[in-house]
Amino acid sequence: KQEVTQIPAALSVPEGENLVLNCSFTDSAIYNLQWFRQDPGKGLTSLLLIQSSQREQTSGRLNASLDKSSGRSTLYIAASQPGDSATYLCAVSLDSSYKLIFGSGTRLLVRP
Amino acid sequence: GAVVSQHPSRVICKSGTSVKIECRSLDFQATTMFWYRQFPKQSLMLMATSNEGSKATYEQGVEKDKFLINHASLTLSTLTVTSAHPEDSSFYICSARVGGVVGEQYFGPGTRLTVT
After folding, report:
1. What span, in angstroms and rounded, lies between the C-alpha atoms of A31 and A94?
2. Low pLDDT (below 70) residues in chain B
């Protein structure tokens, strides 16, 4: 059974720092992996989608990497800003059904 | 960009009543919609997969007679919580998938259900 784990559960950093969020999954046979952002009481915003054949994706200050063989993905946020404060979720899809299995999330606080 | 809406955003109901939540894809046709449930400080758990014109597929442990899903068109799926109980209080989120190879999902803003 696929399990997705995110470390750390919570992170507090001063504005301007570069930071890395970690995601690991137990079964390397994934279809794709997505990183999402969730603001309190709100839905999810997709940040980056990495197909199983890809190694990384970049969007602005965000960079996500994928190492399928080791079951790991990282989300790198450069020059963090208070507006980046949110919960970040990673999720894997096992097949073309695109059903997602979510990690428990990392709650990020960027202090001004 | 692709937009998914949910209605209502918040609902309070009495124990034993039924509540219907709508999920709409506003500017695209969704081949598949998914329903998730999120308890406080926990992650999202998939409840069911909804395909237009066919019966929903429920995840293990989710009661299909309690959580009725209807996917009547390519832009609308509904989740009805029947005979709601306080333990059904949760944040319900839907997502809609755009067909094609990439198959990215777009999530609705969620519905906060409180059963008193």
Report:
1. 5
2. 1, 99-103
